[in-house]
## 1
Amino acid sequence: MASIHKTPAGTWRAEVRSSRMGSKQIRKTRTFDTKREAQAWADAVEASIKQIRHNGRILPTDISLAKAMQIWRKETQEHLEKNLQQYPNDPKYQTLYHRFLKDKSRAKLWSEGPLGAVPLKDIKQLDIEAFIDDRREEDRADSTITNDLNLLSRLFKHAAGTTSTYLPPGWRWQIEDPTRAAQQARVLGQSRKRDRRLSQNELNALETLFAAISDAQNQAPQSDSDHIIEISQGDQLLISPHDSLRYIHAGFILAIECALRRGKLFAMTWGWVNIESGSEHLLIPVQYLGPVNKGIPAYLPLSPRAVETLSALKTQAQAQGKAGSDDPVFGGLFADRAYRLLKIACDALSIRDFTWHDLRHEACSRLAEKGWTLPEIQAISGHKTLQSLQRYIHINKQAIHAKFRQTHRTEPVPDPEADAALLKQIGDLLTQNGINLNAALSHV
């Protein structure tokens, strides 16, 4: 409740008090030159308290998107870490915490983007549509943009107080989420179907370049100057030294051999890896299996080349004392960094329209070309349905022609004269043993 009175000095003092059972009492005062100014301020404070009271403290409704994102993520981290200490084996908290860590780069995208300084309550549908248009101009897939918007939508839900029991309580603002309307207005759906395959020359060129990058980092790990990578015909690639470069070649190989999504691949720790027995495999923790529609098998068999690559990485990790079960297989190489390195390599080699996720398509397609059945490929890729898996399989025309040639070589060529000669030989043999050929055939 607000009260306004005139002071002996002739100014006007406004005081707002608010209390709620179970919450800390709020008292705010301020002095103004006129009664009208004092009344306007008191009305605004009362409206603010009514809208955004949260755990006995006040969050101003004019805080920017960046500040709101910072506060929300801090509250979420503290809430999840506290509950993980109490319930360390609860898969729900584990999954939410993993998603929280994964969203770090997206939170930075929103906080440092053009909307970061805009008050959260003032962000409208047109602002979100402009964001969608900008991301499309950057050639981002619709699925990527949808994931960006999902994070912002969760922030709006938290501000409105509509959170689940597994997440911290929201702020109870009177605020609407404009992201859904913007998605519908911009017809934001699934990414367009991709059928981009690497030619053998492109694959060889990328492998060679990534091997050169990794070798350069291994040979000069403490270098302060750029690594100079020879490409072809005098062309060079200059790339800044970083420990993550050691792992890009292995990451590229395993992306094709394992068909893992980028986020899962670079979250791999040595505790997942079994390359010591005759059944080499990855055993993936439940919190990393993902939702049903984008899941991966908990038990993932490894190809001989994947085993060879992981063995080399483990030898390197053991030499550095970093082969513990919680140590990352790819050291400091994270998913976003791998994405950028592939783009740098493709630009240097003039390989157009190829992304990291296309390596998953490449992996599934190569297994199909080797004669694997769809259920066998599904056991590796983790696709929920065979229909969704088929979107990832694109057989090269050369593979089809090779199959025709192989089939043609294996089919017997009819030879009437040879057949007649063989039949006469059989007849003569039967006659010598007192058996009539026609009579014998009549009983067949």
Note: The chain has four domains: 2-58, 65-185, 200-399, 415-444.
## 2
Amino acid sequence: MRSTRPRIRRSAPAGRRARLALTGPAALLAALTACSGGSPGATVASDGDGEAPGTSVSVNLTGKAAAPGRPVKVTLAHGKLKSVTVTAGEGGALAGRISADGRTWISDRVAAPGTAYTVEATDADGGSDRAAFATAGAEKVNKLLLAPGKNTTVGIAQPLSVVFDHPVKNKAAVEKALEVSTSNDTEGSWGWLQDYSGKDRVDWRPKEYWKPGTKVILDARLNGVDTGADGGWFVRDYTTTFTIGAAQVVKVDLDRSRLALHRGGERVLDIPVSAGTPGGEKASWRGTAVLMSKEGTINMRSETVGLGDAYDKMVDYSMRLTWSGMYVHAAPWNAGHFGRANRSSGCVGMSDADAAALYGQVRVGDPFEMSGTQAKGTVAEGNGYGAWNLSWTDWKARSALK
């Protein structure tokens, strides 16, 4: 349809308001469907006044089952847009920008699945118009697990870690939606890896250990992001915030069977230990692991880590370092080897008193730097938080945004 009239409806005299009200959101949705004829752009019919009907704003998404995952684009045929508001059914709004020529508005984010939207536009001359559309629902939904938890205080080696329920093929699209902000502009990078569970995972670690007191916010603006084949859509956003605590590092010398806790560069604990028996699968890992959790008294069974029926014990002051089952804990049954030899089934054991002292001072996120020849290899990046065992260059290369 062609018309010399502007494509945004002007404010009406009082005598005409009742007739214009008939082109509200519900009527306009029907008009969008009828006028578009299945075309990709939604055209809103303006009121007639004895003249051929013209058009007002057009929207690139139309109908009741528009494809999600695309930005919303609002176009004005004549004149200049003054403002555009795109509101989701639950009350949230999509931010966006008007082009330099004033003719188009494009949302910063994409339309989410299964969501109804209302478009309201005004032009520089005071005209206004409304439109509506809805997106198709997601056939499959992807979700995630975030670490660390919200409003926590963690150690200087704790990464941001995101584990996905389903495979992520569109890694770049997902990574673009993950915004990290820090109180001191910490340099860091996302890196993709496979979690020990076999699921896709992406971690954000700083170039170097965090500075104490740093405040960190993750704004995962994932609603409407398609993760690709077999993965499904995200249908919500996520966020977490945390603070970095004191600068604590635990150093384990496997060859000397000693463990030391350093805080602010000063050694505050020096403990004799007995680590994993060298020469086989019972040996401990070397490299940097990160304290994942403080689990207190737990039942440890050798069958769970592939060591047959070697042990089944209740163990106190248990501090987890890897998903594969390496802990630091109290091991009074091994007292004859503390500080002399490594004779455990892979964990780092010590006396009850020393374990209690260490347990009371370390926090989740503290690095455990394990060195020595009496090890079975280096902690893998997905076995707990092993990203610190990669160089900064190698870690950055794992980003999908190169």
Note: The helical segments are 17-20, 25-36, 171-176, 352-361, 392-396.
